Amino acid sequence: MKKINTVIYGATGSIGDSVLSIVRENKQAINIEGVTCDTNLKKLCRIAKFYNVKKIGFNEKSISSNKKINLNDYKVFDDISNFHQMISNKTDIVIFAISGLLPLQLLLKILRSGKKIGIANKECIITLGSKFNYFSKKYSTKIIPLDSEHNSIYHLLSDKLGKPKSITITASGGPFFKFNKRQLNNVKLSQAVRHPIWNMGKKISVDSATMMNKALEIIEAKYLFDLNHQEINAIIHPQAIVHALINYENGTSTAILNKPDMRIPISSLFFNFNKFSSKEFLLDLTKTPNLEFFNIDQKRFPALRICFQVMKMGGAAPHIFNYLNELLVDLFLQNRIKFIDIVKFIEINLDMYFRNNSNISDPTLVDLKNINNWIDNNLYTGN
Ligand code: NDP
Ligand code: MG
Description:
By secondary structure, the chain is α/β, with parallel strands linked by helices. Helix content is 41%, strand content 14%. The strands form two sheets. A seven-stranded parallel β-sheet has the order 4-3-2-1-5-6-7. The structure holds NADPH dihydro-nicotinamide-adenine-dinucleotide phosphate and magnesium ion. Residues 147-149, 217 line the site of magnesium ion.
């Protein structure tokens, strides 16, 4: 049997761990061609050795701090600007699981590859906006979303039951779903990076706590599935068994139910539903806690309200929302701003941006760069 040749960008992260766990169980079917990290070269080399990977990529700066690691056995790609060269004629699947906006240029290159891409990174999809689908279609690159909600939508839409009226995604609620305003005001960094259900990287864990993750996912769904702001919404579902619902005109909704385990959506990248089985994943609804659903309180979690505003505005607004979040989460992770200030400052900075600049309906990459420069030079952080 021909093995599925796979390149994993972001192999040392939480999504990377889930991908590797699937590969470990299916070594006869999957070959890893290349793996990358930012600075965690030790873990990357451990992965490369275990899975017999020949190509490794990392950011140049990590070499100096890892001088003792012997890289002679590998073909080395020592900067993210070279990572796209890891894809070869033989590559079947590319996994894009580097976090944040930094890998935008890499994504633009691999969108031209004509390969099958499993994309976990939502930040880059939002910033590219309609250009994301435009480029993937132009170069016949097949996109499979890995975010659990979007992966569910992708499979549900393949049912072709007709045109959906709307789509609902669910949010587990994060660690502070039941917190009041006073409690939210006192949240510490250590609390915000711990999610009650999912074990994820720091940025997305903070995003889940502020509900920015759900706000970003709503915009991600807009661009992936070409929806307007009235066709997508989100509700809280603490048990995280139902990930998305497709709602039809006649009152019917379809949904995919599965345990909250990223290996399930990721496995759909490699195997058809009926070709992949694992006892661990079997869902027994009689043994799961009651499934609950709630509206999201936009007063305590204003990220949702702002998200619909930026979607209505369109143009560069969703990117600005996304970029501000990236900068402010970074400041929070450095303990320089409070948890509650992340979304508060996003709103203040958005207002400030549009008081001084007009919106651009279809921003080019140069426009995006200029927007980022303006924000970098004018960012309000409470001082
Ligand atoms: P992690 O922080 O756990 O991992 C990020 C990965 O990207 C690591 O391999 C990291 O390397 C690498 N990386 C980070 N910055 C750079 C850089 N500048 N250059 C090269 N490589 C870099 O994140 P997650 O796995 O949690 O998330 C990855 C993406 O998937 C995010 O966009 C997130 O929104 C999305 N996602 C994640 C989910 C999850 O369950 N974790 C669910 C749905 C979506 P190093 O280890 O060296 O730092
Ligand atoms: Mg998700």
